Amino acid sequence: MTSNRLTETIAAVSGGGSGIGEAVCLRFAAEGASVAVLDLNIDAAQRVAEQISTLGGTAEAYACDVSDQADVQKTFAGIGSTFGGLTVLINNAGTAHIGGLEQTTEADMDRVYSVNVKGVYHCLQAGIELLKQNQGGAIVNMGSIACTVGIPDRFAYSMSKGAVLAMTRSVACDYLNDNIRCNCISPARVHTPFVDKFLAENYPGQETEMLKKLSATQPVGRMGQPEEVASLAVYLASDESKFVTGANFEIDGGFNNLKP
Length: 260
Ligand SMILES: NC(=O)c1ccc[n+]([C@@H]2O[C@H](COP(=O)([O-])OP(=O)(O)OC[C@H]3O[C@@H](n4cnc5c(N)ncnc54)[C@H](O)[C@@H]3O)[C@@H](O)[C@H]2O)c1
Prior knowledge:
By secondary structure, the chain is an alpha/beta fold. The chain folds into 2 domains: 206 residues, Rossmann fold (3-Layer(aba) Sandwich), CATH 3.40.50.720; 33 residues, no CATH class. Helix content is 46%, strand content 15%. The chain has a 7-stranded parallel sheet, sandwiched between helices. Nicotinamide-adenine-dinucleotide binds next to helix 1, helix 4 and helix 6.
């Protein structure tokens, strides 16, 4: 599905080597954007960038650990010189943790905070300079239903995604006059390698049964697809959403609002 909705767009996508980030990179390129694919896993980032190039698009892979401020600054300086600027930033890289308050160690808390909270802060800070030079742009942060709903055994993860929504609103407010919009996407369960890894690690031998159970959590009876999240990201990155900033978009198969 393409309609050239993102021509003139230069997008940086963190965690672009897998799952939702990968779908965003591929869809953005199909819509005409040039894409900087950032990932801790350079092989994954390169695979996505090569796929885009093979299809005739423009993409560059960057090895970047979002939890490392110096690494992020260096990466965004590279994007600025290679692409000649930045117009869209997608803060998608994230990590998970399963456990309630009493099962969450200080090390767990620090690890989740360093990727999901500081990682977003680092990319916002490095990206905002380039967006200001462009005299405007769009930022999309990947939240979760855990931004707004208490879900079992996600103490550290919920802490981090609540912070993502709060940072979204803070940035949206502070950059109104710079023509920079900032919004949050909050998916319920989306079927990605993130989910498969979670099942393999936490429910070995019961993956199929657990996949069914997790699918049933959404009132529509299934998980989301990464491409469905990418469609929303296209809207939020494009001028079609010029009147939208500081908002949180639930893409959740009815999870937040329906109790069938
Ligand atoms: N899949 C879901 O059900 C779901 C639901 C709600 C929100 N989310 C959020 O969506 C985002 C993407 O999730 P996904 O399911 O596509 O995950 P995924 O595991 O498939 O992909 C995440 C990517 O981020 C990269 N990454 C991890 N740590 C990084 C770091 N420090 N620096 C740079 N890259 C790093 C990984 O290498 C991987 O390529 C995450 O922020 C996640 O919290 C996912």
